[in-house]
Amino acid sequence: MLTRAVDIGVITYLIKPVDKEQIIKALVRTAKMIQLEREKEHYFKRVVALSSAIEQGHSLILITGTDGRVEFFNQEFCRLFTGCEQLKDSDILDLFKNKNTDYAQLALSIKSRTRWKGELIFELKGNKPLWAAVTLSPIENSAGVIKNFLLVIEDITSQVVKQEELAQAREKLEKIVKERTLELEIQKNKAEEANRAKSMFLAKVSHELRTPMNGILGMTGLLMDSKNISPDEKDKLGIVKQSADSLLVLINDLLDFSGITEGKFKLKPYNFSPAQIYKRALETIRNAANIKQLELKSFISPELPAELFGDGNKLCQVVINLLSNAVKFTEEGEVIMSVKSKAVNGMVEIETIISDTGIGIENNTIDIFESFTQIENTMTRKYGGAGLGLKISREIVNRMNGDIRYESIPGKGSVFTFNVVMELPAETAKNPLEFPVPLKLLLVEDGRINQKVFYETLRDYPVEIHLAEKGKDAIHKLSETIFDAALIDINLPDITGREVAEAAYNSINSNTALIAVSALSEEQLEDEHLALFDAFLGKPVEKEILIDYLFYVSKIKTGNSLDIEKLERSIKGNKILKQELIDYYLKSSKDLLRQIKLNNKSGKAEELFKSAHKLKSETSYFGGKPIMEITSAIKGKISSGSYDSLIRNLSFELKYFCKLMERHLRSES
Amino acid sequence: MKTLIVEDDYITARVLSEIMKDFGDTQMAETGKEATGYFENALGSGNKFELVLLDIMLPEMDGQEVLENIRTAETNIGIEGLDRVKIVMITALGDYHNIGKAFKNQCEGYIVKPIEKDKLIEVLKDLELI
User: Is the dihedral of CA A268, A273, A277, A283 positive or negative?
Assistant: First the structure.
């Protein structure tokens, strides 16, 4: 009876006689059973929901035992693959194809029962393999023991394919870029090679052009100085000189340009009159301004020093360049140049402003200080010019510790301003009468015209010239007569100037001042070669520089800075040691001077200071005041200016000092 | 008196050795590194130097650094006060600003190039070395 009642849905029952306690117990029991029923129902719903999610979802889901054998797979497998039944009981490690690190990690994770995520190729027999993102999760039972693994597999084939395609495309692109870069590099090298060849060619051609200019300019100058020519002839010669001057400017521009591109551009400082330089620049372009009926005005501050030490010729080049640009680009109105100076830390800063009323500069985006730049290509035809001037000008100004800039209003005009910093000269220039003592000079020069230029240039000076036309002749003369100085052309027909210099060192003229003369620029000669000489003189020969050198050599001759007693005070009469130390100094000082010159050329300031210091220390035992002073000046020089002139003077001084020392040795023996 | 002469300029080195040979053994060093080595070796062997003539301008390691090295080496083995070696700095004209630093680093005296025998002897007498 009771069983039947339960069967048809009775939850509980009471047995008569019914008491209160029994009823309460039955009610509690009933309530508990109802709750259990509800929980069951809830649990069941959840299981249904979860299983439908697993069955109907688009993820591929596998459940395996801890041994990795498949116990369950969802319907998605059967939808995607044929023969999904074969999945049952198969080892999942057999389902994944690639045996790489990921595969090994999957196997390891199953063994160690840990979570894992990775990418593998999934392949079911008879189906196309697919790229799968696999997540492996261990599943614990209610007692917390791992009994199963859940594998969720996502088909990422299309992503991988895309990635692969992308990678391939990238690879292809990289290859193309690489090829292009290589191609460009080859082309760049070719272009650079061509550029270098062009610079070399320019340098060579300019050099060949400069050599005959020496004769033209030298002879014209001398003719103009002579007293027996008519004013008319003088005017005509003036025009010859002016044309030759402009030609020289152009040639020098070309040479400078090739020097800049090869990084060999250098200033050659000497004592000059800035007023003269500005006057020269104005005169050079006056004619061109007159032709265009432009007014050419100049204001030069009276405070401008009478003399400065610097590369006056290069300064002149910048001024001429800016003035001729101003004239070139101005059709009517005026060109004004104003120059003022101020003292800065014992040096002189000169500011030059050149303004015009010309066409102005339209486009501010173009760097007009770059080579070959003119604002419009059509303008080049109208206005001419190689487009080298401003680049060279900027280079020169920068080397003179200054800068160049401009302001311009199109149609109204332009204003160019530049500053340069220069040193005050140590000693002022000289006329023939001020030459301290006469000099005996050996001139080693094969060119007849150049010989004549030297003879004429030095005609009024107390210089006795002995000529050697060939190197061998020079060596012979050096073995017979002691000279104060030798001017040696380094391109001789028989042997090189270098060999002549070396022969001088090994002769009675081992301490003769040697001046190298060449139409090649200083930068084009080897440093080792130049180090044999005390000074360098470029062709066409500039009279001021030549006279400067010879004046210095003459001035040194008036002094006697050798104080041998100093050494005697140091070592107290040890004659053998005295002899040894003098011999040592004669050799060592030349080595140190050579190091000083080479370190200067290669820009190694620190090494230069050290060699100068050592030379100073060694010289201190023999007096040598001028050498002490110059080496101190080299060490104390803070400005970025060049050491060239200090080193040249040091070289001249040291030669004479050694000469005095040798004379002393001879007098003792 | 055992003297260490540290000088890279040959003429000064020869002049110094010529003067110092009358007072005992001399050892020459041309670089700071060499000098430090000689000094430390002598200190270790017990036959230590009594005087160091030390040029300030030396290649690589300069005289100031050698001076510091010597004083550190002495302090490390407990040599102090009057037991320390006497150090005379050698300097060129116009380098006086270096002398101040050398005195701070505990040198005992200095002498200016060109070295003269009488002047050096005066310095040595001042330091009661002779």
Answer: negative
